[in-house]
Amino acid sequence: MSSSMRTGPAAADPEFRGIDPDALGHLLKQMSAADRAIQAWLTAHPPPPGVPTAGHRRAQEVSVWVMEQLSMLNRRYNYAITHPDPAGGVNTGPGARTGPSAPRSGGPGDSGWRPPRGTTPKGAGPDTGNFRNRKDAQRAARLDAFLIKRSLEDGKPIPGDVWQRLKENADDPDYTEELYDRLGPAGVADLIKRAAGDEARLKAIAESLGVASHHLGMNTAWLKALLAEADRDGTRDLVLRVLRDAEMSPRTDDALRRLGLPPAAPVPPRAG
């Protein structure tokens, strides 16, 4: 790590901030394992009566601290993997690991090798969306999903402030994952139907679906259910357009191909 900091992008820019998603993901696993070990120790070793409890309290404080850091780091990790650097990543320098990384999917024929990913500035700085943490983002998404479902069931317009929050948080991985998990394929199809004729709303749905696809299981079964609902509503062409406009995860792109639906064309990197 210190070698990477001395020879990598930070050497040229003292204000540089960046996240290596693979490295942060590994750290999160280590911290989660450490917290489980602390909790197991606390459960198995209650302080006997009359024995000072300072050590036990200290272990509890450490566990609370770890959980707080995990909440913050998980949010930064989610931002990093859903917002790769548009220029293709920042090289991490000769001190960084350049060997094969752990496979992200264990599919047949997957050798597990991935090229060095570099870093992304997204999630590393102060800007991690409109919510303090993952829980706040999920809470807001649950409320909006409830309001959307109620509007659909009652045959009433979706409130304008719900549409506004969707636009404002379309790039938030925690908000979008929770929202579309709650709505499900049928709810997404109905949401797209309600957005017909409003380009700004359709754009927000496409962007947010693309972000959510990195975390939500938008596999072939999910997509088939979405398209089946669209067929019933007579909105298949509109739903297909939204799917093609969305910058989906590689996993969801593969699912689209298996259904004979070409994914969106890759966005060209910015000129240097």
Description of the molecule:
The chain is an all-alpha fold. It has 11 helices and no strands. The protein is elongated.
Secondary structure: elements and pairs:
Blueprint: H1 2-7, H2 9-12, H3 21-44, H4 54-82, H5 134-154, H6 160-168, H7 173-194, H8 199-212, H9 220-233, H10 236-245, H11 250-258
Helix pairs in contact: 3-4, 5-7, 6-8, 7-8, 7-9, 8-10, 9-10
Can you give me a brief rundown of this structure?
By secondary structure, this protein is mainly alpha-helical.
Give the percentage of residues in beta strands: under 5%
Share in helix: 55-70%
Classify the secondary structure makeup into a structural class. mainly alpha
Mean pLDDT: 79
Q: What is the total domain count?
A: 2
Unreliable runs: 1-6, 87-117
The H-and-E topology, N to C, reads as: HHHHHHHHHHH
Query: What coarse outline follows from CA principal-axis ratios?
Result: elongated
Output the number of helix runs.
11
- Tell me about the largest β-sheet: none
Q: Give the N-terminus to C-terminus distance in angstroms.
A: 27 Å
Rg computed from alpha carbons, rounded to a whole number of angstroms: 22 Å
The total count of strands amounts to: 0
